[in-house]
Amino acid sequence: MSLSEIFAVLRRRWYFMVPITLVSLVAGVYLFRTVPLSYESQSSVALLDSTAVAKVAPTYGNPISNAGGSLVVTADVLIRTLESSDAAKDLQGLGVTDVYTVDFATDTSGPLLTLTVTGHDQAKVLKETSIFTTFAGDQMKALQTAAGIPPAYLVQTAPIVLPQIPVSQSKTRIQDVVGVVVAGITGGFLLCFGFEALMLARRRRPFFGARINPWPLKRAPRGFFGKPRDATAILTVYMALAFFIPSDLALPALGGVGTPANVFALLALLWYVANWLCDRIVPAPGTRTPRLAMCLLSAAVLLAYLADATRNSSHSEVLAADRGLIGLMVWVSLVVLVSAGIQTRERLDTMMRRMVVMGTVVALLGYYDFFSATNIADSISIPGLHSSVTGISAMDRGSFTRPRSTTAQPLEFGGMLAILVPFAIHQALDPVRRHTSLIRRWGPVAAMAGALPLTVSRTSIIGAVIVALVMLPRWKPARRWTAIGLLLGSLAGFKVIIPGLIGTITGLFSSFLSNTDSSTQARTVKYAEIVPYILERPLFGRGFGTFMPDLYFFTDNQYMLTMAEMGGLGVLALLVLFATGIHQGGAIRRLARTDSDRELGQAFFASALVSLVIAATFDALGFAMFAGLFFLILGAGGSYLGFIRREAREAAETDGADRPAAGTEAAPSDPLPAARASEPQLVES
After folding, report:
1. For residue 113, what are the β-bridge partners?
2. How far, CA to CA in Å, does 283 sit from each of 228, 276, 336, 339, 639?
3. What is the pLDDT of residues 128-185, one digit of tens each?
4. Which is more confidently placed, 202 or 455?
5. Pseudo-torsion of CA 439, 445, 451, 456, nearest 10°?
6. Most C-beta atoms within 10 A of its C-beta, which of 123, 232, 322, 435?
7. β-strands 112-119, 156-161: how paired?
C-alpha cells in the first residue's frame, strides 16, 4: 500500500481521524497549560581522604588538596547505599519525597558525586536537595562507624557545589505533551484502518470472501526510481539508517532505543498493520516460525515488565523498562516485515544483497578507523541526536586501535560482521551471479572477513572460526582445500602487512586459557556479583532493560544479563530465538533442490550458531545495530523457509502429476464450472 492509498483511507474515514486528532491536540494543550513544571536542583559532593592521610606531605594539612582518586571504589559504595530501599525509606522520613538520583559527576575520574532532586515545587526541591546532601555525608560516616573505623581514618565528605536554585525542566512537560498527541494520532490511524477492514469484509460477502479491491486507484502507484514501494524498500531505508548513522546517536527522549533506524521501524510497523488490515498483505504460509518465537520473547518481556512494577524500582529503572518495551516493538516490526511483508523470492534476494553491500561499507569504514587510529563516528554529528553512550573513545589493545566504524563498540562491530560473512560467501558462490566481476562477488567477503581480526577481540575470532567450521565441511574437496589455502595465505599476509597483530590475538587466547587475562577475570568476578540479583527474582527477572551499567555494572554476557532482567523464562525465550535460526537454516538446506539454496541454508545455520555462541561474550541485544541485524536475519530465514517449502511442495505435486497410474491415461482438464467462471477477477494489490 502506497502513501497515496493510505491517505485515501484516512480521507474516507475522516470522521474517525479528524475528531481523534483534534481531541489529542486539545489534550496536549490542556496538559501543557495544567501540568506543573518540573524543577531540578543539583549539588556536588567530594570524598576526601582521612585526616591522618591528609597531614602527610605535600598536602600540609589541607584535605581538599588530597581528594584521592583511590576513593572511587568508596564513592561507588556510597552511591549504591544511597540508591538502596533502606535509604529511600530514611529519606522519606526526612521529607524527601520527590525523585532523586546520585551518580558520578560527568567528565571526572575522581570521587566526585552529583546529587539531583526533581520535583514540581521549587522551594521544596531546594530544601530536599539540602537534606539529601547532608544525608549523603551522614551515610558515609555511618558506614565507616559500623565497620569500626577509628575517627582519624574516616573518609570525609565535603560539598563542592552547594544545592543550586532549582531550574525548570520544560523539556519533560513537552515530552509528555508530544507523547499524548502521538498516542492519539496513532490510535486514530489504527481505528481508521480497523473500520476499513470491517467495511472490506462486508463488501466481500457477495463474493464469498474473495480478495477484491473495491476502491482501486485511478493510476498505479510508482515508486522511487521505478522501484516498488514494498517491504523490501522500507527495510532498505531501515538498513541504511542503521548501518550509516552511528548506532550510539539517538533521540535524547528515548535513550539508546531512540536511534533513527528504530523510530523508522516503528513507523514501518504501522505501515504493515494498515496493509494487513486492508488485506493488501497476507503472510505467506510456512513463514510463521520466527513470529512464534517472537511471541515467546514478547511474553517474557511483558512478564518482566510486570515484575519490575511489583518491586521498589528507581525512577531510572522504570524509564529503562519503558524503553525495553519500545525496543521489543522494534524487533517485532523487523521480524514481521521480513517474514510476512516480503511477498516474492526475488524481493527477498534483493534485500539480502543490499544487506551485504551495506555491511561491506561498514567494514571498509572500520579499516579507516584501524589504520588512522581514530573513530570515524566521532566526526559524524546530526542535529537533534545525542550520544546515548558516554565516554566513547578510541579503544586500544596492544599497539593497535580497535575499530568500531559506525557501531557503538568494537565488539558490536566484530559480531555484526561475523553474522554477515556467511551470506557474503553464499552470494559470491551463487551461480546466478557468475556473470559479475570477481571484485563484486568476492570483494564483500574479503572486506568483512579481513576486518574481523582488526577488532583484536576473541569474539570476532570465535565467530570467524565457527563460520569456517560450519561452511567448509559441506563443500566439495576442491573448493574446501582452496578455501583452506586462502585462509593460510591470509594469515601470512596479516603477519607481513600488520606485524604483531597475529601475536596479539594468539596472546589473548593463551592468557584466557591460562586464566591470566585481566578482562576475563573481571568478567568472572561480575558473574559472581550478579548471582544475588538473579536469585532474588529467578523466574521473571527484574525488568527488561533495567540492569543498567549506570546503576549496576557491565555483564558482557547476554545470557547472564537476560537471566537478571527476564529470569529463566527470558533465557528460555532467548535460546528459542537462536534455536529457531538454527532450525530454519537446517530446514532450508534439507528441503533445497539446488546447490545455491543448500549453501543459503548453511549460511543461515552458521549465522545463527555464531549468534548463539558470541552472545556469551558480550551483551549482544544491548547494541542497536547488532540486535536489528540479528532479527532481520531471523525473519529472513523464516521467509526463505516458506518459499522453499512451497517450491518443494509444487515440485512434488508436479512430479506426481507427470507420472499417471499404470494402465490409465491422463484425463483432460475439466472446463471451469459456470459458477466459478462468473466469480470476479481478483485485483492485484
Report:
1. 45, 104
2. 18, 9, 9, 8, 10
3. 999 999 998 888 888 888 877 787 778 888 888 888 888 877 666 776 777 788 888 8
4. 455
5. -150
6. 232
7. unpaired
> What DSSP state is assigned to residue 149?
-
Contact between 395 and 402 (Cβ < 8 Å): yes
Cβ atoms within 10 Å, residue 149:
14
CA 13, CA 263: separation in Å to the nearest integer? 26
Range with the poorest average pLDDT among 64-78, 322-336, 480-494, 506-520: 64-78
Residue 104 three-state SS: strand
For residue 4, what is its C-alpha cell? 497515496
The H or E element spanning position 502 is helix 501-513
**Residue carrying C-alpha cell 523470492:** 345
> In angstroms, rounded to a whole number, what is the distance separating the alpha carbons of residues 668 and 661?
15
**Element (DSSP H or E) covering residue 432:** none
Per-residue H/E/C for 355-399? HHHHHHHHHHHHHHHHHHCCCHHHHCCCCCCEECCCCCCCEEECC
Task: Let me know: does 265 contact 184? Beta carbons within 8 Å.
Answer: no
Residues 369, 375 contacting (CB under 8 angstroms):
yes
Residues 508-524 have pLDDT tens digits of: 788 777 766 666 666 66
* Sign of the alpha-carbon dihedral angle for 476, 477, 478, 484: positive
Measured distance CA(548)–CA(537) in Å, rounded: 16
Residue 48, classed as helix, strand or coil, is: strand
3-state helix, strand, coil in the chain (%, to 5): 65, 5, 30
User: Whose CA is closest to 545, among 175, 269, 254?
Assistant: 254
Inter-residue contact 281 to 5 (CB < 8 Å): no
* Backbone φ and ψ of 2, nearest 5°: -85, 170
Residue 680 burial class via C-beta count within 10 angstroms: exposed 0-12, middle 13-18, buried 19 and up: exposed
Measured over the CA atoms of residue 88, residue 89, residue 95 and residue 97, the dihedral's sign is: positive
Q: Among 299, 310, 327, which Cα is nearest to 536's? A: 310
- Report yes or no: 619 and 556 within 8 Å, Cβ to Cβ: yes
- What's the CA gap between 622 and 555, in Å, rounded? 11
* CA separation for the pair 319, 544 (Å, rounded): 11
C-alpha pair distances (Å), 442 with each of 360, 382, 448: 11, 34, 10
3-state secondary structure 536-589: HCCCCCCCCCCCCCCCCCCCCCHHHHHHHHHHHHHHHHHHHHHHHHHHHHHHHH
413 confidence band (pLDDT: 50, 70, 90): very high
Q: How far apart are the first and last CA of the chain?
A: 7
How many CB atoms are closer than 10 A to CB 274?
23
**Grid cell in block for residue 345:** 523470492
Three-state SS string over 213-263 comes to CCCCCCCCCCCHHHCCCCHHHHHHHHHHHHHHCCCCEECCCCHHHCCHHHH
Contact 125, 36 (CB under 8 A): no
Residues 6+ apart with CB under 8 A from 164: 41, 42, 43, 129
- Are 41 and 126 within 8 A, CB to CB? yes
Helix (H) or strand (E) holding 102: strand 99-104
